[in-house]
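Listing S7. Sequence submitted for prediction.
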Amino acid sequence: MRLYDGGKAPNPRRVRIFLAEKGVEVPLVSVDMTAFGHKSDTVRALNPLQRLPVLELDDGTALSESVAICRYFEEMFPEPPLMGVSILDRAVVEMWQRRIEMHLLAIVGNVFRHAHPAMAEWEVPQIKEFSEANRPKVLDMLSLLNSELADRPFIAGERFTIADITAMIAIDFMKPARLQVPDDHLALMAWYGRVKARPSAGA
């Protein structure tokens, strides 16, 4: 088993943090995305979408998509649970994971990919107006999260889950996208301080 890893990119980081929380070590194959290593024949053979991370199993099976890889490890190593502990809890975690992924992480990605000069060769065509159109959507989602976190410690409830990992990654990703959490979002920033203090955040 080996994990093709893309360094500081958001999705590879999500899997590394998930594994760190589980205490699971997987051999990493470092891929230089700045040199378009994810477009190599090796990665293309494993994932036709040419995206990272990719988990290659011992039998040659290749799993891509961050949450699918995390699901695989959740089933293999159920403790500590990061994707829910009951039928309802799993549904709530999935609900928040999807909300964060679709309405924060992806939107921050739109702002970054369609505005940052370094992404001009990646996002073709790069549409700066689309970047600007997505900025208010980020702020709307941050406001929602700030309100939700006023009465619970973590995104999906009382326990740290994959939803918190995705949200932390999204907020970290805001820095290169030149976005900021508003100063009055105190509950959100308190949550962010808690999750960033976890040892796994450095994975």
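Caption to Listing S7: primary sequence and predicted structure tokens for the chain studied. Residues 2-76 form a domain with the Glutaredoxin fold (CATH 3.40.30.10). The longest strand covers residues 2-5.
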